[in-house]
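Need residues for this backbone.
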């Protein structure tokens, strides 16, 4: 609003004379009255007079004046002294010095002390008008300059606010991304590379590594790194202790690998910034777990408080993830151990199927490797094949161990064991591919399997692999209703049933494994 008011004000090239407050100061009554008449003739209606510098100062204390015409030479306080007093308190008042004997030295001295102009006695009406217009033009220039200055300051303020807003948005985006990404990471093999890449990306760094303490917490072991040469995972870094008994990273490691120097090393108990290096401790339940190191910020010599904030947030959220994964792994291992006990109990009831699950797991892994399955699929088979028949815990023992042919009702009952198995393992939080191994390992290539009557490639590949391994072990083992088939007969049955019961590609891979 102040800028807009000035814009309206400076649109006029001459002052609003009726609104001006003018004070005339001279010890000669004739000069005072003559100048007052001249000013009134110009249209200025608010003109006050004073006969001395002392009275002029009293007037300026009572009222604010736009212009003060003051005689240079007066008894008591002269014009220059009055000028100084006025400008000491009223910087916006324009003071015009009146004199009959102007000299260059006097003019220069008066101007230095704040005089706006000079009026030489005897003066004319035209002289007064010219002075007022000259001062007004000067005021306009000053006001324009002020306006430009204000606009520049406002622009700087807007830019500053925009920069602050951009930083805040960036921080909020990074924080949201960290929380969102970590919520989808449930394996440590994915977590530690994520920490490294996220730290480098968020802080514009060139190097990062994550290390964990060994059992005695006297060394650090590298888990993941990026940007370091000759520092592969597993490398051990010796720690030292300072005079306060706190762990520090030695100077040699900092100089060699982090490209920074630290006279006293870097303490690891709390987050620390040392020019182009930040160390961030990871604590799990208030116990030291590891340290994240970030080094060499791109385009700058050192990291700042924003980088420290981001890394602190990343460390807090990731540490919580690590703790949750550890709890989950413990729970998962406990449940798996319980399920394996159930599997052992099932197999113990039937001497003909003892160790069936472990043999099927081994065969499935060999076939999967032959087919070029990736690491994740191999891990799924490794964790799920041992419990693929867990659902048989819900099948009557008399049916499981029946030496003769099953009735239709008995067969329908035994066909329910894949679904029973899926319900049992549901609390483990297995992924869809793992659940499918248990649910669909009795599906057939021709669509006549159970429980979902899936056909050909609609059957998950890991289930197709398990189906062949399961059938081969069943044929090559003694059962209650028959003796083990000869090895050659087992291979013949696999060949005969490809494209009907089994996936032909899986059979080819299995034959290659069994014959080699």
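Answer:
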């Amino acid at each position: 609003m102040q800028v807009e008011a000035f814009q309206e004000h400076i649109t006029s090239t001459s002052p609003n004379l009726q609104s001006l407050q003018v004070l005339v100061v001279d010890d000669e009554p004739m000069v005072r009255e003559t100048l007052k008449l001249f000013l009134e003739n110009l249209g200025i209606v608010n003109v006050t007079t004073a006969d001395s510098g002392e009275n002029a100062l009293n007037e300026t204390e009572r009222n604010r004046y736009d212009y003060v015409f003051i005689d240079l030479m007066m008894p008591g306080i002269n014009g220059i002294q009055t000028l100084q007093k006025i400008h000491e308190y009223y910087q916006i008042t324009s003071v015009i010095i009146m004199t009959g004997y102007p000299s260059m030295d006097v003019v220069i001295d008066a101007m230095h002390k704040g005089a706006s102009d000079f009026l030489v006695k005897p003066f004319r009406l035209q002289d007064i008008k010219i002075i007022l217009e000259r001062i007004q033009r000067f005021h306009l220039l000053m006001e324009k300059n002020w306006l430009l200055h204000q606009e520049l300051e406002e622009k700087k303020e807007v830019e500053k606010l925009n920069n602050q807003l951009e930083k805040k948005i960036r921080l909020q985006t990074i924080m949201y991304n960290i929380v969102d990404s970590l919520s989808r990471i449930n394996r440590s093999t994915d977590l530690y590379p994520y920490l490294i890449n996220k730290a480098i990306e968020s802080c514009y760094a060139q190097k990062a590594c994550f290390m964990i303490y060994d059992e005695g917490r006297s060394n650090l072991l590298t888990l993941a790194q990026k940007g370091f040469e000759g520092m592969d995972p597993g490398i051990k870094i010796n720690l030292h202790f300072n005079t306060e008994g706190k762990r520090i990273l030695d100077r040699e490691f900092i100089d060699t690998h982090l490209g920074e120097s630290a006279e006293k090393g870097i303490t690891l108990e709390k987050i620390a910034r040392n020019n182009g290096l930040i160390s961030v401790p990871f604590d799990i339940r208030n116990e030291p777990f590891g340290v994240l190191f970030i080094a060499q910020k791109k385009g700058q010599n050192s990291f700042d408080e924003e980088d420290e904030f981001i890394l602190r947030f990343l460390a807090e959220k990731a540490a919580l993830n690590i703790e949750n994964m550890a709890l989950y792994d413990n729970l998962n291992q406990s449940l798996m151990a319980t399920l394996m006990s159930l599997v052992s109990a099932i197999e113990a009831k039937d001497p003909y199927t003892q160790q069936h699950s472990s043999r099927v797991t081994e065969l499935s892994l060999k076939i999967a490797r032959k087919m070029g399955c990736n690491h994740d699929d191999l891990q799924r088979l490794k964790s799920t094949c041992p419990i693929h028949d867990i659902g048989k815990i819900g099948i009557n023992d008399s049916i499981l161990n029946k030496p003769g042919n099953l009735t239709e009702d008995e067969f329908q009952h035994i066909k329910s064991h894949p679904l029973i198995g899926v319900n049992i393992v549901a609390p483990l939080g297995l992924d869809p591919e793992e659940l499918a191994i248990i649910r669909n390992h009795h599906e057939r290539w021709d669509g006549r399997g159970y429980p979902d009557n899936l056909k050909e490639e609609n059957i998950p590949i890991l289930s197709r692999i398990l189906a062949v391994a399961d059938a081969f072990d069943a044929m090559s083992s003694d059962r209650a209703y028959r003796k083990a088939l000869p090895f050659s007969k087992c291979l013949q049955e696999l060949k005969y049933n490809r494209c009907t019961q089994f996936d032909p590609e899986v059979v080819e891979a299995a034959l290659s494994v069994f014959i080699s």
